[in-house]
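Annex B.
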Amino acid sequence: MPHVERGMAVGLFGGSFNPPHEGHLLVAEIALRRLGLDQLWWMVTPGNPLKSRSELASLADRLSMSEKLVQDPRIKITAFEKTLEGSYTANTLAVVKAKNPQARFVWIMGADSLSTFHNWQKWREIVSTFPIAVVDRPGSTLSFLSSKMARTFDYARVDEDDAGTLWKRKAPAWTFIHGPRSTLSSTALRAGSDDKTQ
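Probable nicotinate-nucleotide adenylyltransferase: predicted structure tokens.
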């Protein structure tokens, strides 16, 4: 787990990164800038319970590709989840919170994950652990209106203009951040498709 100083604001950006690409990097850069973060942890997960393992590159390869892609020293590439029992996000966030009571965290996710977020194990617990920033992705701009999470926690939505205060807020609190979008996707890159919007 990366080192964090007292009072730091840290974004947690988890995913398979299979492979990592410029779209992921754009989400990370937008989050750093718009949320006023000191660090962002690029958390490469050992696996994803909602995705097939047969398509998954090795953890070492995904870490190596991430390190080659990311140049910003504020972005810390890590795979600490490998050392935890169970790779579910709710468990990871609970451990992060327990081990780093001196820091403030925000969970970062692409808008493309919002529509299926209610299928994640203990998704309500995730929303209640740390504030969440949802960053726009192509084809997902309206997900903040239609997703189950957005409807359930509509009362906790923070205006995008106040995104820079999100890390100071007590969960549940979330915001949707619009901005430049990349049409790249890991699925399309794995398939070698010309259509990068799948």
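The first helix runs from residue 22 to 35. The domain at 9-191 is CATH 3.40.50.620 (Rossmann fold). Further annotation is deferred to the next reporting cycle.
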